[in-house]
Amino acid sequence: MSCIDEKYMKLALELAKLGIGNVNPNPMVGAIIVKDDKIIGRGYHKNYGGPHAEVFALNEASNNSKGATIYVTLEPCSHYGKTPPCVIKIIEMGIKRCVIATLDPNPLVAGKGVKILEDAGIEVKIGVLEKEAYLINHIFFKYISTKIPYLSLKCAITLDGKIATRSGDSKWISNELSRERVQELRHKYMGIMIGINTLLADNPRLNSRIAGGCDPYRIVVDPNLKTPEDYNFIQNNSDKKSIIVTSTDNLTNNKYQIYKEKYNITFIFLEKKRFLMKDILKKIGHLKIDSILLEGGKSMISMAFKEKVLDGGEIFISPKIIGDSSAISFFDGLIIDKMEESIKLKNIKFKVYGDNVSLKFRMS
Predict the structure, then answer these.
(1) Which residues, 6 or more positions from 127, have their beta carbon under 8 angstroms from its beta carbon?
(2) What is the largest CA-CA distance in the chain?
(3) DSSP 273
(4) Residue 1 in this model has a pLDDT that exceeds 80
(5) How many Cα atoms occupy the beta-carbon half-sphere of 47 within 13 Å?
(6) What is the CB neighbour count within 10 angstroms for residue 124?
(7) Among residues 6, 54, 271, 295, which one is catalytic?
(8) In whole angstroms, what is the distance from residue 149 CA to residue 282 CA?
(9) d(CA 187, CA 216)
């Protein structure tokens, strides 16, 4: 593999990351155009529905692009969607060579972009920093292939694994630096999901409190439709992003009609009142929500672990000990006799936030 190709693809990958949180459910993509070993165009996909990375880069390169090489982190699109096909513009602008990090698994693209470029006489090279490109868009790759949202856990625990005291007090286990990181996660993922007990205990806003942050869809799993009308979840829904997952038994509940008509709450209905996480995720995927940050509480986290549907997550560990067997653990319900039967998190990375330690994991 050419060191020069790697050099420019790394720059394209860094550009791609600038689109985090703003392009969902589209992939993050970066593009660099090089001619005579000089960068003449740069671009990245900035927001959902907007121009793609290649378009920005080609526009910057302008007439100088003839005979140049374009480095792009994902196979250029070949279909008409919210924007015209990028392969057409690449051909029209006279690009001689196209270096691609990874193919696009979207059935609308999936190798078609490469074929169009090659048929037009453009040299195509695939697989430069492919692993790095996959990791940047692991959420997109899962969702476009399965239509099931990527599920990421976020929780803060004490050294003895508690998320609250026996009275339910949890403010604050984590420190301010960790909580700032959480706001970044809320910007990254399209949805935040909690259970009704967490909603009733905390009355959270479930928004992204960072400059320029994109507020996620707010999802509460509430089988008995207990969500109070005066809570933030209902009252602060001007963006129409509040979603209640509840039982079909509530189709005749007056609350359902009021919340739907007066407050524009979206409802997902499931049979009975004991839901499976996999069924919840499937229904949410139908709403074109590609990723979910699972913020608890214990019942929701335990359900996700037991059903083995977690794709990854970040656990913030605080140097505090409650030491009370009645305090609320972040996960329970398994019966394990041997250590080899325990759940093992994979692809671990650690980061320090003041006196907190973040344990980041990815299950595949």
Answers:
(1) 100, 101, 102
(2) 70
(3) S
(4) no
(5) 4
(6) 16
(7) 54
(8) 8
(9) 7
What does the alpha-carbon distance between residue 37 and residue 194 come to, in Å, rounded to a whole number? 50
User: What's the confidence (pLDDT) of residue 79?
Assistant: 72
Which among 34, 39, 40, 118 is positioned nearest to 68, based on CA atoms?
A: 34
Cα separation, 313 vs 294, whole angstroms: 9
CB 98 within 8 A of CB 59: no
**By the 8 A CB rule, do 310 and 363 touch?**
yes
Structure tokens belonging to residue 15:
């550009």
| Residue 276 CB coordination number (10 Å) | 13
The residue with tokens 């706001």 is: 183
Do the Cβ atoms of 158 and 318 come closer than 8 Å?
A: yes
What pairs with residue 72 in β-bridges?
31, 100
- pTM comes to 0.91
pLDDT over 70, % of the chain: 99
**Residues whose CB is less than 8 angstroms from the CB of residue 238 and which lie 6 or more positions away in sequence, other chains included:** none
Strands (DSSP E) contained in 6-55 are 30-35, 38-44
Using DSSP's 3-state secondary structure scheme, residue 337 falls into coil
Provide the pLDDT for residue 233. 96
266: left (phi over 0), alpha (psi -120 to 50) or beta: beta
Residue 111 has what pLDDT? 81
Using the Cα atoms of residue 238, residue 241, residue 245 and residue 250 in order, give the sign of their dihedral. Answer: positive
What's the pLDDT tens digit per position in 189-215?
999 999 999 999 999 999 988 887 889
Map tokens 């037009």 to a residue. 120
Comparing CA positions, the residue from 203, 144, 140 lying closest to residue 171 is: 203
84 pLDDT above the threshold of 80:
no
Q: Tell me, yes or no, if 307 is annotated catalytic.
A: no
Residue 109's pLDDT band (cuts 50, 70, 90) = confident
Between CA 103 and CA 330 the distance in angstroms is 39
Q: Residue 137 corresponds to which tokens in the numbers above?
A: 């868009």
